[in-house]
Amino acid sequence: MVQFQTPVDGACDPAIIPFVDQLVRDGWCIMPDALPAPIISRLDDDLAEGFDRAPYCRGPFYGETTKRLGRLPLRSVHSEALICHARILAIVQRFLGRWCDHVQLNTTQAIAIDPGAPAQAPHRDQDMFHGPKGEMEYLLNVIWPLTPFQPENGGTRIWPGSHGSAALGEAPIHEEQAVAPVLTPGSALLFLGSTLHGAGANRSASVRRAVVIGYSLGWLKPYENPWLAYPPSVARRFSSALAALAGYIQHRPNLGNFEGQCPSKLLTGRPELMTGPEDALLPAQAEMVEAYCRAQQVPG
Ligand SMILES: O=C(O)CCC(=O)C(=O)O
Ligand SMILES: [Fe+2]
C-alpha cells in the first residue's frame, strides 16, 4: 500500500480531481483530448526539419538510435499550448505547490525513436536530484505523443504503483509489470518524478515521436538551463506565463534575482525599471522581519 499524501489540500478545478486521484494511486494517468490533434500535428511539422538535421544521441540511456531536440519554444510557437496547458499546470501545482513558491519548466524535449531501437532502461526522473526520496515529489512529466503510441512502436512504458514510498529501496524491476498505454496525438501521459518508466523498444517500421514537457520545484536546478536556452533577447517574445515558467521570476525569498530585482524586468526593455535590490519575501518571512523592526523601534 503506497502511503502518498503529496497533493496540496484546498479548492481546485473539479475537472482535475480524477487525474490527481489516479496520479496519487498509480503514479500516472492519461488525459485524453488534452489538445486538438491539429495543434499537435503542426507542432510535429515544425519539428521535422530539426529532427532531420539532428545527430543521433550518444550513450545507452539517451539511446543511439534516438534523436532529441531541446528548446521547444524556439522551434515551434505551438509548444506554448502544451507548456502552459491550464489543466495540466493546475495538476502540477497540486503535486509540487506544497514544496515551492512556484513551479518551473524542467524539460522541453522532443524525442524521435527509430525502428529497431531497444527499450530504454527503466528509471525515475527524480533521480537527477540528489535529495531525500519518498516524502515529496520533485517533478511531474507530461509526454505528448506526436505519432500514435503502441506497445510495439516504442510507446512509453510505465510501472503502475512504483511511485512515492514504493520508489525507496532496490526492488527488482519486473518487466511484465510495465504497461505501455495506447495513445493518440492530442492526448497527454502524465507521470510523477518518482514513477518508474522508460521508452519502449521500437519493433515497428516507423519512427516514434513525442514531446516531453516536465515541471519541477522552482528552487531546483532545472534539466534544461532556461537562461541559456532562452536568454532575455529571446524570452522577451514569450508570454508572461511562459517567461515565468522559464525562470524569469523570483522564487521567494529572493532566489533567481538579477541585481536583487525580479529577472522579468530584463524582458521589458525598460532599464529604468531596474532600481536597487528589493526584498521578495514570503508573507511569513515579511511578517517576521517587520515584527522585529517594530520591536526595535519601541522606546526604551
Ligand atoms: O521517450 C519516452 O517515452 C521516455 C523518455 C524518458 O523517459 C527519458 O528520456 O527520460
Ligand atoms: Fe524519463
Question: Could you explain the architecture of this structure?
Answer:
This protein has 300 residues and is of the alpha+beta class. The protein has a single domain (14-245), classed as Sandwich (Jelly Rolls). The protein is built from nine helices and eight strands. It has helices at residues 17-26, 37-53, 72-75, 79-83, 86-96, 226-229, 232-235, 240-245, 283-297, and strands at 28-31, 66-69, 103-113, 139-145, 156-158, 188-192, 197-199, 208-217. The strands form two sheets. A six-stranded antiparallel sheet has the order 1-6-4-8-3-2, covered by helices on one side. The chain has a two-stranded antiparallel ribbon with strand order 5-7. Mean pLDDT is 94; it is low at 1-5. Residues 123, 125, 197 line the site of fe (ii) ion.
Would you identify the regions where 5 or more consecutive residues have pLDDT less than 50? Answer: 1-5
Share of residues in helices: 25-40%
Are any ligands bound, and if so which? 2-oxoglutaric acid, fe (ii) ion
Q: Note the run of SSEs as H and E.
A: HEHEHHHEEEEEEHHHH
SS-derived structural category: alpha+beta
Coarse shape: globular
Strands side by side in the biggest sheet: 1-6-4-8-3-2
CATH C-level class is Mainly Beta
Give a short account of the largest sheet. 6 strands, antiparallel
- Report the end-to-end length measured between terminal Cα atoms: 60 Å
CATH hierarchy: architecture: Sandwich
Q: In what range is the share of β-strand residues? A: 15-25%
Determine the CATH topology: Jelly Rolls
The radius of gyration computed from the alpha-carbon positions, rounded to a whole number of angstroms, is: 21 Å
Structural domains: how many = 1
- SS elements, strand count: 8
In CATH terms, the superfamily is q2cbj1_9rhob like domain
